[in-house]
Design a protein that fits this description.
Blueprint: H1 2-11, H2 15-18, E1 24-27, E2 47-49, E3 53-56, E4 59-69, E5 74-83, E6 86-96, E7 103-107, E8 114-118
Length: about 120
């Protein structure tokens, strides 16, 4: 149900023009977009990023701080997360691939960044 609410907010008339380039529903595998209306309730499924939170499978993160490097197309998010009864803080770095807004790199603090495609 939460996924449907997020989807409605993201796709509401006027919401797209007010969104920043990094907000939307994103999938590491294009086939996951088939479950874009079930974000948070099934796996594999995409993640949803709004102006206030990041939602994935069995986890939700509130966005506490946003730092933007506009010219570089980079956004740093400071998150407070809940997952399966645990709480933790996490940083994410979102990097714009190009001006189309169809793909972003997401780095979660270790390993290599992961390429995500926008679900449409």
């Amino acid at each position: 149900m939460r996924g449907l609410v997020l989807l409605a907010v993201l796709l509401a008339p006027g919401a797209v023009s007010a969104q920043e380039w990094w907000q939307g529903v994103w999938a590491a595998e294009p086939a996951w977009c088939a479950a874009m209306d079930q974000v948070g309730s099934v796996t594999p499924a995409p993640i949803a990023i709004t102006e206030r939170e990041v939602v994935g499978y069995e986890n939700t993160c509130d966005i506490n701080d946003i730092k933007r490097l506009h010219r570089a197309g980079v956004v740093y998010l400071r998150l407070s997360c809940q997952s399966e009864g645990s709480t933790f803080d996490e940083d994410r770095v979102l990097m714009r691939v190009d001006e189309t807004g169809l793909a972003i790199w997401i780095w979660q603090g270790s390993g290599d960044p992961i390429l995500f495609q926008r679900c449409q």
